Amino acid sequence: MRNIVRALPVLLLLLLAPVLARAQEPAVITGRVTNTAGQPEAGVLVRIEALNVGAMTAADGAYRLTIPGARIRGTMSVNITASRVGMTSVRRPLNVTAGAQLTQDFVLAPQVLMLEELVVTGHATPASRARVPFSVSAVAVENIPVSAGGVIQGKVAGARIADAPMNTEEYNHIQENVFLAAARDPLSTFSIDVDRASYSNVRRFIRDGQAPPADAVRIEEMVNYFTYAYPAPRGEHPFGVVTEVGDCPWNRRHQLVQVALQGRMPETRNLPPSNLVFLVDVSGSMSSPDKLPLVQESLRLLVGELTARDRIALVVYAGAAGLVLDATPGDRKDVILAAIDRLSAGGSTAGAAGIQLAYDVARRNHMPGGNNRVILASDGDFNVGVSSEGELVRLIEEKRDQGTFLTVLGFGRGNLADARMEQLADKGNGNYAYVDEIAEARRVLVSERAGTLFTLAKDVKLQVEFNPARVYAYRLIGYENRMLAAQDFNDDRKDAGEMGAGHTVTALYEIVPVGADSDVQMGGVDSLRYQRVGMEPVGRFGREMMNVKVRYKLPDGEQSRLLSHAVQARDGGARSSENFRFAAAVAEFGMLLRTSEHRGRSSVDDVLRLARGATGPDADGYRTEFVRMVEAYAALPRRPSAASGGDGDR
């Protein structure tokens, strides 16, 4: 009997073990959001405010919410809400238990604003300035430093006023590249750009029912968001050069030249181990569901890809920076996920202190020959500590020389510091992506993890020399903030962009051929007194129209390597490839969004025609999504008109 009594606690523990284990399992809620016509609605925020979780719907309207088991106490009755600008919000009651697998779909209807009748009557006698005994001046409504809500709220029966949140998003001004004369300026030099943040940010604006700010549109990042079926590189270099010449869709008197780099994609088993430090902004500005909760969902996806060879650490910053999880093997997923689940938002943002600590942790756990990287997840709203762009950039530049690269993930809306985060990634030998939904996180951190996290080459620079016997003028489309001086090409001290494993980089030049009937206007200078600028006869270089040179360094190298590729004039009548046509469609759409003075006869209809005819196999669906995005833009009630320099040619 005594033995039985002694055994009872053990038996009880064995019986309760499955229950206790299940209590720690996360609850997962999946579903789909459609409109009243049964069509999927992307960009809808689905959230459970009481549990501080939320997710955005993908292009197919699907969403997935994961609730950490530690947050669930028994059976909890909560409200799950689906909302998006321009649609009626829908709330549903839900009973949640740890380990539950639930489904909740939503149907949203367009929002119709109903205003109660408001009648204001009064009488006034017109008065001139001379007849009133006080000074009279006019003040525009937009210059009154109080909100309408503050004046009317509580004063007018039946009126309810809600002020819109202030938008403080930051974007660097883009001064569009102009046409240059090949005889006078034969060299075009720039750094590559593999960032793709601009495209997903533009997508977010259009999904929210508004056109993006012109400076949020970086055309090169929109073009490079997509993968292209370029030939795999051969030989000693880690990437190959691919070029194509074709007609310019928006100006048939011009030509378009596509210059692309295709990076080598190593097999997954050959990728080096990773020493990753997650640096997560948990300040008060990150509290909304499209910020910290989406960051947590994104990091969970990446954790699922890690192995025992990898090491993960977690640093957070708000009013101060702190180490939440020191370097932990990647196969200890329960420990890493538990640390991620414990994150919560609050406080101001000491971003510089967090960056300093993250680099220190990465340095302490440095893996020789491995992938040493800090992954910063933030809205970029640094407001405590070192906060000037110059100081932050110098801090990043100081740390990159230690062999730790930087990936920056932007989240949220309303206060997105796009300009700052792009610059930090550029100076930190890294890349920058904007995560507007969980599907984008899956693309960046899972599907294209190798390109995002593993550097193939650094300080990659291009220099194109144009043959003035065949090219009268040229213009590089995009890359305005990546332009370099001609002499920077041979200067190995000059920082440039990094290329990830399997990445493609595409650049487009609009060309005015010699003899073309073009209306391109270029400013000139007086004739030189002491020298004459001549041209080699066309026969010497045959049909060459330009020569492309590329310089790069290996990830652990300090001396650059060179490769070059001559581009021949186009064969008449040859049909352009799908890669060429689709890249041209994306660039044309970017010019429309920017209301570019070089957009020629561009129109949304032309963009759609070109893109629909070049989607190709589209296994991942991204090209089809682009078409739907352009269609959504076309349906916006307020778009720039032809009179204002926008797209009016429908």
Automatic annotation (TrEMBL):
Pfam hit, one: vWF_A
SMART domains recorded: VWA
Signal peptide feature range: 1-23
InterPro entries in alphabetical order: CarboxyPept-like_regulatory, CLCR, Uncharacterised_YfbK_N, VWF_A, vWFA_dom_sf, YfbK_C
Record's keyword terms, sorted: Signal
Domain spans labelled VWFA: 275-460
Keyword Signal in record: yes
Coiled-coil intervals: none
Organism domain of life: Bacteria
Record protein name field: Ca-activated chloride channel family protein
Organism: Longimicrobium terrae
